[in-house]
Specification:
CATH superfamily of the largest domain: PAS domain
Shape: flat
CATH architecture of the largest domain: 2-Layer Sandwich
Structural class: alpha+beta
Strand content: 15-25%
Number of strands: 18
Number of helices: 18
Radius of gyration: 45 Å
Distance between the termini: 35 Å
Largest sheet: 6 strands, antiparallel
Length: 614
């Protein structure tokens, strides 16, 4: 959609460039009206298509349910035949004394159009009785048949096999039948001794095939096929093509899905499948509806929609011509006032003449010009306030408490007659103050910022009596780059007070700086206790930081107010943009890294002015 709108915008720019307002309004309104009508037509066609698809699916579901009931009735007859043979014949007969062939023949004759054979086998595969043929082939071993093993695997259930050729018996006619075998485990009584066996009812597959062939002929949308719970095809109207490999069916995926309707793509064709499970068997009755067949019936609707859209667009173009003539002249007069504003006059003489809408537009324009004047005044005041806040932030960097402790350390060194150390400390303090002042500049070379940080850490080392180690590893290639001054010292103060102060082991603070393309990174890392990730994410947000401290603060726990970190982050963003600033990286017991991200800009005396003008 975004790409489509972009193309329309580009077309408008090319078409309307340099044209008068009269032509511009006509073309714009006509194009908008045309696109709107086309979109409405497309939406209408899509809605009709979806409804037609829904009706087709519902109709196919009803037809599939009817076909399923017919198939289930047929399979139920086979189940009743198996039940009658077992519960009336086999369970009530002692096979050592009686023969049940008469019962078998009676049931066979009553439904021989749908039955091929009935047989009873012992658990070791021996034929007990069968009809209408009872002579077993010498090469036949029923124990190798799938229906035989499945009967013992599912003792409580009937097993319906996939279609196969029945070649167990010798028939005089030399003819083989395609059958679906219904097998079940039974209990055989021989002289009072129970034994296991398998009752086999071979159902003529032709009756099932004819039923499903008729269903395919009656289906108005697609075709119907049947597969078992493992995805093996039982019936398909294109069975020969499947066997020869010229056609394929997605029966494996169908077998794994629940009943319902699905829209899918198979072999590059969009289609809808509706599937129902056949009772007793676990078979899937599947209706396949190609989407292209649904679209054929919608062609007349599409032609009618195109005609209506064309007439609507023509009518809108005529209306646009009339409306444009009514509003063009007053707008041209208003254009003169706009040109005056474009020339830089924020106190123009705006004409209110014309229709009510144009007059209202003129008043709105006058109000907008006044608002622009107010916003410009507010922007100047806001920039002055930002610079004032920045100056106050810079002044607040020199912590009076730190100065007191530094001077106290000097007194302590003098009293201990460590004059050289006292002189060294005073010199470092002077260096610290010199960089802090920087002749009133806000942007200084990274080299000066590193020197300031080194002086600060030298003083802190004397104050804490060398209780921690400091390592500066700064690439020489970034030393001549620019930075906002006094951004490393607050991070070092945080690392000392909240990171390593009070550690049982020796603390260590590493300052590492490097350049990556046009960007500079400076890491201040301590080996302190670190903090959870959720706390680190709040440090640069004053509101979230206070909320986190209220929720997690415990007696004796140290929490900084975060002002120093937020101050550093805001000053970097103010000077270089929101793509730069501060990042907090920390994990519990793994220490904390404060990463400064700056652009690489060569330092010069006028760099600060150039940055402020951006």
């Amino acid at each position: 959609m975004r790409k489509f709108l972009g193309r329309i915008t580009s077309f408008l720019e090319r078409s309307l460039s340099g044209r008068g307002i009269h032509i511009t309004i006509i073309l714009s309104f006509s194009l908008v009206a045309g696109v709107s009508m086309i979109l409405i037509g497309v939406l209408f066609y899509s809605q009709v298509s979806r409804r037609e698809q829904k009706r087709t699916v519902e109709r196919e579901e009803q037809f599939l349910n009817q076909t399923r009931r017919t198939l289930e009735d047929h399979l139920h007859n086979m189940r009743r035949t198996s039940d009658a043979l077992y519960y009336i014949g086999i369970k009530n007969t002692d096979l050592a004394k009686e023969d049940i062939i008469d019962e078998f023949n009676l049931l066979y004759e009553s439904d021989k159009d749908n039955l091929v054979s009935i047989a009873l086998y012992s658990s070791d595969g021996e034929l007990v009785t069968a009809c209408p043929v009872s002579t077993v082939k010498a090469t036949a071993d029923v124990r190798e048949q799938d229906w035989f093993s499945q009967a013992f695997a599912q003792v409580e259930n009937l097993h319906f096999s996939t279609p196969h050729v029945q070649d167990l018996f010798d028939e005089n006619v030399g003819q083989y039948h395609w059958v679906i075998s219904v097998s079940r485990a039974v209990e055989i009584d021989r002289a009072g001794f129970p034994a296991s066996g398998v009752l086999l009812v071979d159902m003529n597959f032709d009756s099932v095939s004819q039923m499903l062939t008729k269903a395919n002929a009656d289906s108005m949308s697609g075709y119907i096929y049947v597969c078992d719970s493992d995805g093996n095809i039982i019936f398909h109207p294109r069975q020969k093509l499947l066997n020869s490999g010229f056609y394929a069916e997605d029966s494996q995926r169908v077998a794994a899905r629940a009943d319902g309707s699905y829209t899918e793509s198979f072999k590059g064709e969009r289609r809808i499948t509706v599937q129902k499970t056949v009772s007793y068997t676990g078979w899937k009755l599947v209706s396949v509806i190609p989407v292209r067949s649904l679209q054929l019936g919608l062609n007349n609707m599409m032609y009618l929609a195109i005609l209506m859209i064309s007439l609507s667009i023509l009518g809108m173009v005529l209306v646009n011509l009339f409306v444009t003539n009514r509003i063009t002249y007053p707008i041209l007069r208003l254009e003169e006032s706009v040109q005056d504003i474009e020339a830089g006059n924020l106190n123009p003489d705006i004409s209110y003449e014309g229709p009510r809408e144009v007059s209202h537009l003129a008043r709105s324009l006058d109000s907008s010009v006044g608002r622009i004047r107010q916003l410009m005044d507010d922007l100047v005041s806001e920039q002055e306030e930002k610079r004032k806040s920045e100056l106050e932030a810079l002044q607040s960097q020199i912590n009076p408490h730190f100065l007191y402790n530094a001077l106290d350390s000097v007194v302590w060194l003098i009293e201990g007659e460590r004059d050289q150390d006292a002189v060294y400390t005073v010199k470092e303090l002077a260096n610290l103050m010199r960089v802090s002042i920087s002749h009133g500049r806000t942007v200084i070379p990274i080299r000066d910022e590193i020197r300031h940080a080194q002086s600060y850490m030298n003083i802190q080392n004397i104050r804490y009596r060398n209780s921690f180690e400091v390592d500066f590893d700064i690439a020489e290639e970034i030393m001549d780059g620019c930075t906002v001054k006094l951004i490393i010292q607050p991070l070092l103060e945080n690392a000392i007070y909240y990171g390593i102060q009070g550690m049982e082991e020796d603390g260590c603070i590493d300052i590492h700086g490097w350049r990556d393309g046009d960007e500079v990174f400076i890491d201040v890392t301590d080996n302190g206790m670190g903090m959870p990730e959720e706390q680190a994410e709040t440090l640069l947000d004053p509101v979230k930081s206070q909320e986190y401290k209220k929720e997690h603060e415990t007696p004796g726990m140290r929490h900084g107010n975060g002002v120093g970190l937020i101050n550093v982050d805001m000053r970097i963003r103010l000077m270089f943009g929101d793509d730069y600033g501060l990042q907090v990286i920390s994990e519990p017991d793994e220490g904390t890294t404060m990463r400064i991200h700056l652009p690489y800009i060569d330092y010069s005396d006028d760099v600060e002015k150039r940055l402020k003008r951006r």
